[in-house]
Design brief:
It is built from three helices and eleven strands. It is an alpha+beta fold and 191 residues long.
Length: 191
């Protein structure tokens, strides 16, 4: 009976290690879900780009395809997220995660392979008399890279930054405009 209990304890330990170890079932499941979410986000962005491109041709537009896409991609909503696009053709999709890309001169999109993106891309903090200084949260989204993220404010007399890894709290100190930078290794992004 003692031997049976010892054997059962050993088997329980082995089974537990298979489930919770670094390369165990739980870790593999989490990794698989993360990969699936990234691929879903990429597909959502690609489908949004194709949808806008199709509308351009269906409507028989004569102007620049690129300009039409930039105008119509900004604010485009998908089942899982939203697309934003700036006047330079830089596209950001925020869904389960973040996917970025660029619309080229011919209206084609190319997804970013790796890097860092800050969301939101810009913030406006309104200071009001007799109220606490306004704050906002920004997030650095790493695309196919990893490492520590450092945050800086180009002018801490206007806005300060409190780091918390992927997220940072920006706090208005005085009126004006400044740039917040998130850096990870050789990559950086600004807000």
């Amino acid at each position: 009976m003692v031997i049976t209990i010892i054997v059962l304890l050993i088997l329980a330990g082995v089974s537990l290690r298979l489930v919770v170890d670094e390369d165990g079932i739980l870790e593999r499941t989490t990794t698989a879900v993360d990969k699936m979410n990234k691929e879903t986000d990429k597909e959502e962005l690609e489908l949004a780009v194709l949808d806008i491109k199709m509308k351009y041709y269906e409507e028989g537009k004569l102007g620049s395809l690129r300009e039409y896409m930039i105008e119509n991609l900004n604010g485009y909503k998908t089942a899982n997220g939203t697309v934003s696009c700036d006047e330079n053709g830089n596209v950001t999709y925020v869904g389960n995660g973040v996917v970025t890309g660029k619309i080229d001169e011919n209206g084609n999109s190319e997804l970013t392979k790796e890097g860092i993106v800050i969301t939101p891309a810009s913030i406006k903090l309104e200071m009001k008399k007799d109220e606490d200084l306004p704050t906002a949260t920004v997030k650095a989204n790493l695309i196919e890279i990893s490492g520590e993220i450092s945050w800086t404010s180009a002018n801490p007399n206007i806005v300060t930054v409190s780091e918390k890894g992927e997220t940072a709290i920006v706090k208005a100190v005085d009126e004006g405009t400044t740039i917040i930078t998130a850096k990870c290794g050789n990559y950086e992004a600004t807000c």
